[in-house]
Automatic annotation (TrEMBL):
Protein name in UniProt: 2-isopropylmalate synthase
Record text on subunit structure and interactions: Homodimer.
Residue span(s) of domain Pyruvate carboxyltransferase: 33-311
Catalyzed reaction equations: 3-methyl-2-oxobutanoate + acetyl-CoA + H2O = (2S)-2-isopropylmalate + CoA + H(+)
Domain of life per record: Eukaryota
SUPFAM superfamilies to which the protein is assigned, alphabetical: 2-isopropylmalate synthase LeuA, allosteric (dimerisation) domain, Aldolase, post-HMGL domain-like
Organism: Gomphillus americanus
Keyword Membrane appears in the UniProt entry: no
GO molecular function: 2-isopropylmalate synthase activity; metal ion binding
Amino acid sequence: MPMLKDPSTKYPSFKPLNLPNRQWPSKQLVKPPRWLATDLRDGNQSLVDPMDGEQKFRYFQMLVQLGYKEIEVSFPSASQTDFDFTRTLIETPGIVPDDVWLQVLSPCRKDFIKRTVESVKGSKKAILHLYLAASECFRRVVFGFTKEESLNLAVECTKYARSITKDDPTTAGTEWIFEYSPECFSDTDPEYIIQVCEAVKAAWGPTESSPIIFNLPATVEMSTPNVYADQIEYFCTHISERNKVCVSVHPHNDRGCAVAAAELAQMAGADRVEGVLFGNGERTGNVDLVTLALNLYTQGVNPHIDFSDLTPVINIVEECTKIPVHHRAPYGGQLVVSAFSGSHQDAIKKGFMERNTKSQDSDYLWQVPYLPLDPRDIGRTYEAVIRVNSQSGKGGVAWVILQHLELDLPRALQQAFSKIVQKEADRVSRELAPREITALFERTYHIHENPKFFLVDYHIQADRSSSPAPRGGKSLVTRDLKRWFDGVVSVDGIEHHVKGTGTGPISSFANSLRPLGVDLDVVDYKEHSIGRGRDVKAATYIECTAAGIKDKVWGVGVHEDVVQASLLALLSCAASFDEVHPISSNGSITPKRIKNVDNITTKLEALQAEPGPKSGPDAVMSLDSHLNGHRASVR
Ligand SMILES: CC(=O)SCCNC(=O)CCNC(=O)[C@H](O)C(C)(C)COP(=O)(O)OP(=O)(O)OC[C@H]1O[C@@H](n2cnc3c(N)ncnc32)[C@H](O)[C@@H]1OP(=O)(O)O
Ligand SMILES: CC(C)C(=O)C(=O)O
């Protein structure tokens, strides 16, 4: 049968509770609830292969480490594995901390209750949890019970449980809490729920210091979360001796609203939440405890559960349940702190930049676009935040280069390289890993190896004759001196002695290359340092045009010596031009410019004939003054 045209003939809408004076909508969550982790019971009972004792043991230790103080460890009457596991916990010294409660579940059957109590004998703190369905549907379909029969069984089992626990002197070493779950609470007449719980409460006899837990499950989620919140508020305001009652919720996720239901239920008065890490559990699962805790955290409330290192938690959960955590699961999903799309990456990168410049204070309020949580708080690195595929833009690519090579690319270079990356991502039709992007960058800009040019040796001098020293001892740096470059450049393995002058080191080097047929004009220049202290390096970015060629290219140079970084950047440009417009060893791409070089060479030779500074402070400029020279020379 296809889907019905009128589904209301099969699926009547849920009749909400009439609660006109509800208070919960104006409440806020300002503290964490009492948490109960039922991974080893409700989570376990829904697995294809339930956990063995060893897996349960490992999982239990992780829950304790995370900070859970109430852990439902088993359904001991169901299987020997569960019974034995519970015994192992109790009998292994040092495994259950003194402040941790072991919770065990039993149906309302005396033989099962007896066995369940036996399983926790000797424990310091135990929560005995009984359940019995209360809804009309379950009473009719599953049990064939009237309301009264169902209530009577609940009371009878509670009295029996009491007689073999807190009323039994042989169990005096155990501190007992009793929990009762009217199963299918959210599908049950609320007045009847109150009736049953009042009767159970009277049978158990809670005190203010040892309250009874009424766990009110959305066994199957059937309505919008606001309806569940109304039901919880109704219970909280109608149950007597509220101070002797802990109201617990146990939302399932059939409609995908379990997290919202748990949060609204707390606003409605619930004190405690039962759930499972990453929401494993029957059908669509239990409420996800990771999401609940981190939702509180990102609202400034400490959940008292420590997810500082979420990855090992995910690993253990996946290994024990054989269910992978969805890549888009809130907080834990592998992809939830990653952005592939260009505009997201750009915004995230800007958010990080602002954060870096504004404050280093750890209490600086988190405001990074698209990231509700600082990935580092849950043990994730910023590296994984930005990932690159064909949907990515320059911001994302620049981020990867910054993170992995510490190169802060100028905007125009970002644009140029991003096109290359996009082409490559399109070509391979998949994400490019950071190491692929950095390799592509290093190859494109000849960072480690220039395929054609090699700077063998060089010497740059200031030409004092180009600007006479003013009287009155003005410093050399302020004089507008030309530089002359004299060096050896290898082209395709053949060494050439080159010379040139210019207004700075870059232009003098550029001019020296012209006789080799390399005629470059610098149109943009940027530089920055990498690292600090003794290991500091310089990164230089130069954009050039070549005479007769329309395209501009970027060159990148990285070196401990700031001047050499610039020279390498220029050779990086030269090699890029050569890749598109090969330069022959004796040919030229611009005969016109070669003429200029003749002039330069003539002038250089004339300069060399003059007695000029060959060494000493006048001859070798400081790095800073070299840089000043660069900047002055860049158009
Ligand atoms: C909402 C929840 O998650 S509740 C927890 C559910 N978890 C589990 O069921 C896991 C462990 N369960 C088991 O191992 C088994 O079902 C057992 C051991 C509890 C019972 O096994 P069996 O005796 O073979 O019964 P079976 O599983 O076939 O059916 C359940 C029986 O318990 C009854 N029952 C169901 N819930 C309850 C309850 N809360 N209290 C008393 N009896 C109940 C059913 O009516 C049915 O009785 P029937 O056989 O007279 O018709
Ligand atoms: C035993 C109860 C709490 C339960 O698991 C449910 O109703 O989902």
